Amino acid sequence: MKKLGLALAALVALNVSAFADLIVINKKDLVPVSASEMQNKYFQESIKPIIGQPLFKKATFYEADIVAKVDPRTYNSTQAIIQKIYSDKSNYVYYKQVLILTSDGKRAKLSTLSCEIASFDKKGYLCGGTADHNYSIK
Helix, strand, or coil here: 23? Predict the structure, then answer.
């Protein structure tokens, strides 16, 4: 629970200056998140805190695989963290790594969306995301 709270705080703290001097990703190389994934209730719950931010009100979501090509070190390190933290199915019901483009389409952040089991919540889970790394879009 504490991890999720910290992750949500990191999302709130994100601002435009965090995108300066970044690795560039070509927009034509991006693959949109599938429509079925976008309809997933856990995906929908996970993105609520993100799209509530002014910079991401009209965000678009893409598969994170492109990051493996343009920034393999970051991709590999985030994958290792994902395997360590989210592999315990007794704590998490959902996780997905995505690339989230800002409303203006010029910047993006690599983010891990997740839903943690929370017995104290009436839904039974608590969702959010982490801001793992930022990129510039060309």
Answer: coil
- Of all helices (H) and strands (E), which one includes residue 5? helix 2-13
pTM of the model: 0.78
CB 3, CB 84: distance < 8 Å = no
Where along the chain do its domains lie?
Answer: 2-14+31-137
- Section 3-7 average pLDDT: 50
CB 61 within 8 A of CB 54: no
Burial of residue 7 (CB within 10 Å: 0-12, 13-18, 19+) is buried
Nearest Cα neighbor of 126 from 116, 134, 137, 136 is 116
What local confidence, expressed as pLDDT, does residue 13 receive?
Answer: 45
The burial class, CB within 10 Å (0-12 / 13-18 / 19+), for 88 is: exposed
